[in-house]
Write the structure tokens for this entry.
Amino acid sequence: MTSPARLAVDPIACDGRGLCAELLPGLITLDDWGFPVIARGDIPASLQKEAAAVARLCPRLALRLEQAAPNSPDRGQIPPRRSSRLVLRPDTGVRRPGS
Amino acid sequence: MTRYETGLCLPAPHRAGTALPRLLPGAPADVTSPASLRAHLRRHGPRPSCGGDRAHRQRLIDEVERSHLTGRGGAAFPAAVKLRALAAAPRIPVVIANGVEGEPASAKDKVLLMSAPHLVLDGAVCAAELTGAGEAVIVAHEAAWETVRIAAAERRAADYDPVPVRVLAAAAGFTAGEASAVVHWAGRGAPVPTGRPPRLGGPGRRPAALVSNVETLAHLALIMRHGASWFRAAGTPAEPGSMLVTILGEVRYPGVYEIEPGTPVSCLLELAGGTTAEPGALLIGGYFGTWAAAADALPLPFSAAGLSPVGAVPGAGVLAVLPARACGLAETARLTRYLADSSAGQCGPCIFGLGAIARELEQAAALGGCDLPAVRRWLRDVTGRGACRHPDGTALMVASALRVFRAEITLHERGRCSAISSAAVLPVREPAP
């Protein structure tokens, strides 16, 4: 049995090539400007294999198949911290716009 | 010029003991000169330490939760939820104080940063201690950047803060203030939204950054000093505390005011010296906010609950008055064009959709006809289709305009406009190149 999955578009990567809507007309339509609109709800189990294949075919790698989200961590207690800190851009003094 | 009379605006009995302003200086003249560290400490007292072991930080975050402090950047997200998520993040987070305020109609963050920079810095350091962050970064609008930098230098010289504080001048442009764009700017020097949630410390290698509006952090600094009960003594039980609002448009004294949520809209306009012409419509919340007919909105309390009859929320605290003599459709078209041009230009539906909507509205404003069904379809089409909420917010504002200015739109379709003035009321700035 397959777990519920959905298609998602990375709107920044997507260029509106339209391949996905051509291959999956039941799940994806195009808006007035040629960008994909994903049908609401989970993908029918019978189409999951095709959806996964089309996601791999996207020339912009902007389409992905998302499995149902795993449970989020408990809220409440602060767990101990293990790994190292996030490194932002090295401090080069104060940055001004345009510099 | 007619002054809009609203009668007396007395504080409600339960609020009689609340002393405002809390964040802004007491005397209006001080708004232009920043409080020094010494003056800041004299007024507010020293910043209490928010660090320590996990149990202690947990208790302090519980106190923030009891205060019901919500984000003052527009989304009103509970501050405690953010703090807890970042405190639990697997990587050491960074606190980013968002003082970008790219919206031309809003001035409250600039005024706060320029008059009380140390209160914001206190709040950022408190948030850093609560979440165990390694650094606090203040991203401040160009106009306030210098003031904040000097304040941070003053603190560094006094060795006042337990975490390093860095001040960054914000990039220009409307979308530069979007949370992921602020993180992107601080981290990579590119002020565009990324579409990934930067606010919550996720698992794995996702960056953990607490992005919080500067006013939210200023409130946090006072909650850590005086406690949740003190904070809740102002405002309404559901929306406690004070909030900064920017009142502009057709009022005698446009500016930034510190108010209690729940104050009637008419009283806010009185606070700004009253209206200088008969008000026609109000834009509530900002450019992602809601248009409402003045007559409908004036008696309502300025709070999320109070404004619900007109479908508005306080948002980032903007209240703009459009006079009855101006054309609401023309004003909406101008705002929509500005917002369309302000798109970061990354997502197709935002680039093309907002552009198409703006074009149609401009044509309607110029008496050239309007394909309303198409505009309505496009409003739905752009919603939820960008990496950030820029298209969604614009669509909400335009949708409210189609409701409120329905009669004007019909009039325009017949080739007429009711306006007797074509002067632009709401400010728009040139979008960033």
User: Anything to note?
Assistant: The longest helix of chain A spans residues 48-57.
